[in-house]
Amino acid sequence: MTMARRIVAEGLGTLLLLVVVVGSGVMGARLAGGNDAIALLGNTLSTGAGLVVLIHVFGPISGAHFNPAVTLVAVLRRELGAADALGYGAAQVIGAVLGVWLAHAMFAEPVLQVSAHVRGGWGQGLAELVATFGLIGTILAVSKHRGEFTPVAVGLYITSAYWFTASTSFANPAVTLARGLTDTFAGIAPASIPLFIAGQLAGALIALAVFGWLLAEDPA
Question: Cβ distance 135 to 58 under 8 Å?
Answer without folding.
Answer: no
